[in-house]
Amino acid sequence: MTLLNETHDPKLKSWISSANDPSCDFPIQNLPFGIFSTADDPQPRVGVAIGEVIVDLAALEAAGLVSPPGAEQPVFAAATLNPFIALGRAAWRDTRLQLSRLLREGTATLRDNSALRERALVKQAVAALHLPVEIPGYTDFYSSKEHATNVGAMFRDPKNALLPNWLEIPIGYNGRASSVVVSGTPVRRPNGQIKLPDQERPAFGPCRRLDIELETGFIVGQGNALGEPIACEDAEQHIFGMVLLNDWSARDIQQWEYVPLGPFNAKTFATTISPWIVTLDALEPFRVAQPEQSPQPLPYLRHAGQHGFDIHLEVRMRPAQAARASTISRTNFKYMYWTMAQQLAHHTVSGCNTRVGDLMGSGTISGPTPDSYGSLLEITWGGKHPLTLDSGESRTFIEDGDELTLVGWCQGDGYRVGFGECRGEILPALPGAR
Amino acid sequence: MTLLNETHDPKLKSWISSANDPSCDFPIQNLPFGIFSTADDPQPRVGVAIGEVIVDLAALEAAGLVSPPGAEQPVFAAATLNPFIALGRAAWRDTRLQLSRLLREGTATLRDNSALRERALVKQAVAALHLPVEIPGYTDFYSSKEHATNVGAMFRDPKNALLPNWLEIPIGYNGRASSVVVSGTPVRRPNGQIKLPDQERPAFGPCRRLDIELETGFIVGQGNALGEPIACEDAEQHIFGMVLLNDWSARDIQQWEYVPLGPFNAKTFATTISPWIVTLDALEPFRVAQPEQSPQPLPYLRHAGQHGFDIHLEVRMRPAQAARASTISRTNFKYMYWTMAQQLAHHTVSGCNTRVGDLMGSGTISGPTPDSYGSLLEITWGGKHPLTLDSGESRTFIEDGDELTLVGWCQGDGYRVGFGECRGEILPALPGAR
């Protein structure tokens, strides 16, 4: 582990005692940013999760206890993180340090100011969480070699599962930003065109092969101008942080529509992200080497050092009536072949510009074994091997009422830097064949 | 021609005499909306083009001469059209009628108020035109049967050029909104991965097969909520207007990258649109039947009546040193197989939401004959049949310094409703293989 600065010290404790539980996602080493509101104050504003509470940064900023360098006006009394993120990396770091010092054991400023503490600490249980950023553009990559190989084997040729361009290009495509929703938002099963093998023409109706894709996403913190690519070596400096991302996918709609321009209605009905953005700074101690890349990438995709991150990931599925969820996949971000830096360098190498708040999905994260696959398509191998849940029910794809939850965390020494949940329940399709 | 209301009367003349020239793109029957600024007043604001001038709507609104119904605060002193468009169809129609009455021959209010006229009429020649809308999402369709057939014949199988899904689905994909630029913005030739047939690995370098795609785009004026599709019969009510659109394409980058998720870097470096949005109301007299669709589309894609528009389109190419441009293609929007209404109904049928200002490209518009094809790829048949320009130079694809211009207009009786220009000059690629 790398101890870049005092915010990473594993021994740090907070005077907010719930943050010191070793199984808590939000210890003082994490300090992820999000947008929340409460029944008392329905105005969405910036908060930081710690233990079981949210620290209201708008309140701290108004009280003069937190002030991001470079801010000419308040940035935390905002309904999105974009104004704060736009201040740049030095401001993110400095604010993180200010918060770490304010919330650590022994610092009395906020702890002993009961009036302010009352206003500024909100129980997560009573808060509503909102989409943390306004997302000008959403791009989804396809950077897990295991996932690309599995899909290629199923849909094309098992002997040549990986397409020739895959080892050269961090393949990606433009997603639909408008339908990115925050964890907890119910997702309606899409209707669409489905072409069954024994039918001459497609039929219109509810998706029958509704799936998840376990992904992470990163949020662009500093964009680039049109025509000015971001070099691979510099790319991480442009990344604010990461979220969990569920790229809901209608496999039957996708299979019929995707040639030759890629997936469209199969993906555009919803993409769910977790509400807390874990900063790249908080993830720094969990940096690991990415898998070896062979052939060596073209020069514009090269970067020295380690660019993987050791993030444990799980998928949980809970049928409507089940008392508890079953874990159906356990994998890790460190398996990803292409790094976030390579994705961003490739995205911009043509001159394409990026903007503050842009969301870039990793692509489905599959590990080497079936219990580490990141989609039901792979876990049940196209529906051939149904999954048995703890409740005794079996599943090939998602049924109405099922709730799917992604979780993720980095394991530190006595603490974990967690992402919280990325959750969605499936509602029945709209009725009528229209 | 349909005379829906008095704004369509072919006999209408304006007291702005340049608007009465039969070859002018902007007669009083058009009244397209855009965003402009001037050296004297660099604040971008809403204007309407008529004849050789721009009517400054911010100035007219401030003077109380134009007031869109439903506006609770000024909407024309804005840097984008989004606040105006968000007022909805009734407001667009009413504003158009107010302007038509104010600018027509015989109305003295503005004509004889020299102080206001001085402020509110700006010569187009001295104005800078900006992107007319903030574009939350950009989608590009692929709705010309001739284009899809030509591309399929070149890249896949001439005998089965059209893929099986094409006649059932208005195929579309998500584009990159960040790099949509307004006419006149220079476009830098992209660098990217290019895989030559005789090489084992791709090389990185400037695109060698840079192309245009002649398209139109429509601007969503009224969006839909997530999970609430727009019915095909209602879809035109959601459209504010149309622009010309050049979907610049790097064919060599595209060919290597596009399998299996579609075009990405080959398209994301720039998309140019014309600055004036011609309202669907202004296009109403030019409504024609779309081509016959066989097989009959699925019910969710059906709409009674005529949904094509008779829009003449041309592509002009001017090499750096040439005195004048050569027209290299003449086609018409009426050839489009899938209608804008069908595109929007399909886009949202999965539940995907759309937003005010969303841009939807038609896809390359090719007619039935080689001189009506909408891309150099088709015109030169993959570079096999070079084109000879009026200057004597020959071209397969675009060279550095070439200027490409799309123009379009509807021909009325003694007037034309034009789109102005959609123009871009190609700059050399950034140096260095990085």
Automatic annotation (TrEMBL), chains A, B:
Chain positions recorded as Ca(2+) binding sites? D140, E213, E215, D247
Ranges of residues in domain Fumarylacetoacetase-like C-terminal:
139-407
InterPro entries named in the record: Fumarylacetoacetase, Fumarylacetoacetase-like_C, Fumarylacetoacetase_C_sf, Fumarylacetoacetase_N, Fumarylacetoacetase_N_sf
Entry binding sites for Mg(2+): D247, K267, T271
Asked if the keyword DNA-binding belongs to this entry, the reply reads no
Any one GO MF term held by the record is: metal ion binding
Q: Superkingdom of the source?
A: Bacteria
Q: Which UniProt keywords apply?
A: Calcium, Hydrolase, Magnesium, Metal-binding, Phenylalanine catabolism, Tyrosine catabolism
Obligatory cofactor(s)? Mg(2+); Ca(2+)
Any one GO BP annotation for this protein: homogentisate catabolic process
EC number(s) recorded for this UniProt protein: 3.7.1.2
Q: Which residues form the Fumarylacetoacetase N-terminal domain?
A: 29-132
> According to the UniProt record, what class of enzyme is this?
hydrolase
Q: Where does substrate bind?
A: Y142, R156, Q254, Y258, T364
Q: Which Gene3D superfamilies match?
A: Fumarylacetoacetase, N-terminal domain (2.30.30.230), Fumarylacetoacetase-like, C-terminal domain (3.90.850.10)
**Active site residues per record:** H147 (proton acceptor)
Q: In which pathway does it act?
A: Amino-acid degradation; L-phenylalanine degradation; acetoacetate and fumarate from L-phenylalanine: step 6/6
Protein family (similarity comment): Belongs to the FAH family.
What is the protein name stated in its UniProt record? fumarylacetoacetase
